Structures are given as C-alpha cells and as structure tokens.
Amino acid sequence: MDDATRLAVWDSRAPRSPRVRRRPLLLLLLAVCYAVAALGGVAASNAGNTYRSLDRPAWAPPTWLFGPVWTVLYAAAEAVWDAELAPAMNALGIALHEEAALDLLLEDLG
Is residue 8 in some structural domain? Predict the structure, then answer.
C-alpha cells in the first residue's frame, strides 16, 4: 500500500469532531423542549377563562397592566445583559431571553 492510499484510509477513519457528535443530542433536547412547550400550551389553553373566574383580592393589579410591566422587566433584563454583565449572568440571561420569547409567542396566540 503506497503512502497516498494509506493516508486516505487513515483520514476516512479519523474521529469526528465533538461538535458533530453532539448534534443528535442537541436535536433530541430541542425536540423534548418543544414537546413539553406544546403540552403546556394544550394544558393551559383554558387558562384565560380560569384566571377570570378566580376571586382576586382588591389590591390585585388590573389585567391590562400585566403586558406593560413584563415588557419593562424584560427591557431592564436586556439592559443588564448589554451592560457587560453577561459572564456573571449567562445562565439567567439565556433563561430570561427564552422566557421573553415564549411569553411573546403565547401572548400572540392568546
């Protein structure tokens, strides 16, 4: 076997990069996340009617205030994220961004 053939055989047996090996796991975890989100959406499909039927205390804020307050909170979280504090808040920041996106999606669907 000459050197070129030996090199070609060796290259074809080279281990794949860690990124390629983790791709199926990433796809599986994404599928699980979306399945759980869909299940939660189905389970909460009647949440608006349930919330309106609750006996809320007199000090409870009006329902129209929910959207603006959470918008301000998410904008504040974004400001903190942009203020170079990302290394200290990496996990929290990612969770807040995902929560914000999910809330916006669910608000549009509702």
Answer: yes
User: Which domain, by its residues, includes 23?
Assistant: 1-43
Report the first-to-last Cα separation within the chain, whole angstroms.
Answer: 68
The overall pTM is greater than 0.85? no
> Distance between CA atoms of 25 and 105, rounded to whole angstroms?
25
- pLDDT higher at 8 or 2: 2
pLDDT tens string 8-42:
555 555 555 556 667 888 889 999 999 999 999 89
53 within a domain of the structure (yes/no): no
Judge whether 70 and 103 are in contact, CB under 8 Å: yes
DSSP string covering 10-47: HHHTSPPPHHHHHHHHHHHHHHHHHHHHHHHHHHTTTH
